[in-house]
Amino acid sequence: MATELTPTPAARPRVVIPIVGQPVAAPRLRLAVLAPMHGPTPVAANAPVPAPVPANAPAGVPANAPAVPAERSHRKLLDGGAVRSVDRAAALLLALGDFPTEAGVTELARTLGLHKSTASRLLATLQRRGLVEQDEESGKYRLGLVVIRLAERAEKTRDLRTIARPDLERLARATRETVSLGVLAGDLCLTVAQVDGPNMVACADWTGRTTPLHCVASGKVLLAALAERDILRLARKGLAACTDRTITALEPLFQELARVRRRGFATAISEWEPGQNAVAVPVRDARGRVIASVDIWGPAYRITPARVTDLAAEARAAAGAISIRLGGTAA
Fold this sequence. Notes:
This protein is α+β, with helices and mostly antiparallel strands. Helix content is 41%, strand content 16%. It has three domains: 1-37, no CATH class; 82-152, Arc Repressor Mutant, subunit A (Orthogonal Bundle), CATH 1.10.10.10; 160-325, Beta-Lactamase. It has helices spanning 26-34, 70-80, 82-98, 105-112, 116-128, 145-156, 160-175, 217-224, 228-236, 250-263, 308-325; strands at 2-4, 16-18, 132-134, 141-143, 178-185, 188-195, 210-212, 266-269, 276-284, 290-299. A six-stranded antiparallel β-sheet has the order 7-6-5-10-9-8. The protein has a two-stranded antiparallel ribbon with strand order 1-2. A two-stranded antiparallel sheet has the order 3-4. α4 (105-112) crosses α5 and α7 runs antiparallel to α11.
């Protein structure tokens, strides 16, 4: 069955619409046909009435959809897009830092499980910011100078004493001995932190005081990390004899420092003060440089030669924990 509509005076085209089921009154049908010219799409007579759309509902969201707080929808967008990109870029930097020299796009993409084109786009963005550099000949990438500058700034803004304090306290409790942190201060060893163990006989507080490098365990650790020309310069200034066990000649000093490098720790047996012994290990920064030393020291009857190996292992664990927090490794 078909119903013919008479065009309106505005000369609209003649429209013939097939109607299935119950006939619809002409006025309603005319409104339904003309509505698309200036209003919403017609709705079937038996269609459910939609719920009213809130005035502040975002475009494209169904009226009956559950309301989503703005902060939750924003967080979802970041998790699915922006944060993922940042995470991938950070993972690329970390992976690149694990390679001994340089790495290609294929290697990095395989390491992180990324598509090669994705890794390439991320590297191009990092390169524009100076975070990575690309070798013109090989096409491979390495960390950029900006990363080095950021690392140096981070080191300057961190207080070594604050970082090391918890590990020094744990070491003092574990060994029941006095523990200190020493750094190079010109040609001397400066104690910047000290924690006493729970022993009844306490040691003097050396925080803020200096000692010669060649006759204390901490100083030997710092000396062993210096270039040979610097050691020679210090030796030419004279190696003072603090006790009859102090090393005062250049050749024995070189031999002692070689032993420190080989064993990974230094000892001082009554070399600074008679009856006082010490064991020290290095603390390294993010570049692997020795920047401090952790030492355990006390009376010779407590810091005995038989305890040296065990004390060195305890000190090495504490120094390794400090090194990790500085961005280095526990080597």
